[in-house]
Design goal:
Shape: globular
Number of domains: 1
Distance between the termini: 7 Å
Number of helices: 6
Low-confidence stretches: none
Helix content: 10-25%
Radius of gyration: 17 Å
CATH topology: Sulfite Oxidase, Chain A, domain 2
Number of strands: 11
CATH architecture: Alpha-Beta Complex
Largest sheet: 6 strands, mixed
CATH class: Alpha Beta
Length: 213
């Protein structure tokens, strides 16, 4: 870890520390990827459910986007280069019903996180397949993870498998366990008042990893 220069510091939200590394933070085991069984689908408040197999997903147009990462455990990694499918490319194939206002992101293994629809549909949001010109490693969400740079990184679900469009905004896994519903890093929207055992374990693991770098 190192302190940023003044220009870089302007890009760091309150309470964050700059790192050149990319800590691996996962609650649970990394799921095994089977391209024969993988699919990505959009469902819920849509006119018709849409789904892609892995082979079909790889044929979708790709974009390259650079963005910063801000983790709720207080590290930030700047200037990440992502390659993948832009969220708007996905939504070209989906007719969302007007009453939809939120999205529940579904990912392996049985993980969920909630995002406002307005936060999801933005210029820098994509389903990433590569990071810094390399295939996304399994521990970092490979083969495919959601990237939503404007919010803390737990909202950028690893191993993403689907988007459920809703007219309510229910909490996902970490939100049920005390994390903030919106997660704006510039407002330090980290946790609710009560910290759960799962949150304590993940924070302790993050501290151990950072001390070892």
């Amino acid at each position: 870890m190192k302190g940023p220069d003044p220009e870089l510091a302007k890009r760091l939200p309150p309470g964050q520390v700059l790192t050149a590394k990319w800590p691996v933070l996962t609650y649970g085991l990394t799921p095994r990827f089977d391209p024969r069984k993988w699919s990505f689908r959009c469902f819920g408040l849509v006119e018709q459910e849409v789904a892609w197999t892995w082979e079909e997903f790889l044929k979708l147009p790709r974009v390259e986007i650079a963005s910063d990462v801000h983790c709720v455990t207080r590290w930030s990694k700047l200037d990440n280069r992502w390659e993948g499918v832009h969220i708007r490319e996905i939504l070209k194939h989906v007719r969302i019903k007007p009453e939809a206002t939120a999205v529940m992101v579904h990912a392996d293994p049985d993980y969920t996180t909630n995002i406002a629809l307005s936060d999801l549909i933005d210029d820098d949001v994509l389903l990433a397949l590569k990071h810094n010109d390399r295939d996304l490693e399994p521990d970092h969400g490979g083969p495919c993870r959601l990237v939503v740079p404007k919010v803390y990184f737990w909202k950028s679900a690893k191993w993403v498998r689907g988007l459920e469009f809703l007219d309510v905004n229910p909490p996902g896994f970490w939100e049920v366990n005390g994390y903030h519903m919106r997660a704006d890093p510039w407002k330090e929207e980290r946790y609710s008042d009560q910290e759960t055992r799962a949150m304590q374990q993940m924070r302790a693991e993050a501290a151990r990893k950072l001390r070892g770098r």
